[in-house]
Amino acid sequence: MNELEYLRQMRSLNRPVAPRRDLWAGIDARLDEAPAAAAPSRHRRAQPWLMAAAIAAVAVISGGIGLHLAPGGSDAVAEAHTNWKPTDPRLTGAAVELDAARMELTQAMQDSPQSEALQRLLQKTERQRDRLRTIDKQAG
To answer: Which sign, positive or negative, has the C-alpha torsion 38, 40, 46, 48?
Structure first.
């Protein structure tokens, strides 16, 4: 089974699941019991989460800029910045997913460059991208 079949099966699992019991009665009772003054205190509790989310966003953006501006770099990082798009629109989704996977693996390799598992996954992703290019050439 290749990754595309695996992803199709994963997407088919995205179906609604009915709860075992009716949850609305408990939700309605808790809403009636909640005092009106509780809203500002909940807002204060949300601020640390917002700050953590902002810090994470800044870290991700600065990491992406650092990867983009890094001098030299490996062939995988250099190839990660190429913007190849298949001419056959049926292959575009697969190309987008492979590019996203390659970018995530490249970022993970920055954290642990000696990881053999990440290197194997990156090589496998590159082989899949090469196969996709070959299919695109044959189709177009």
So the answer is: negative
117, amino acid identity: A
- pTM attached to this predicted model: 0.40
Report how far Cα 136 is from the mean position of its chain's Cα atoms: 25
Digit-coded pLDDT (tens) for 25-39: 888 888 888 665 555
- For the chain, what is the largest distance between any 2 Cα atoms, rounded to a whole number of angstroms? 66
CA distance linking residue 134 with residue 140, whole number of Å: 10
Torsions phi, psi of 129, nearest 5? Answer: -65, -40
Which of 29, 11, 27 has its CA nearest to residue 19? 27
pLDDT of 74: 47
Which residue do the tokens 């997913």 mark? Answer: 97
CB atoms within 10 A of CB 80: 20
How would you write 116-135 as a 3-class SS string?
A: HHHHHHHHHHHHHHHHHHHH
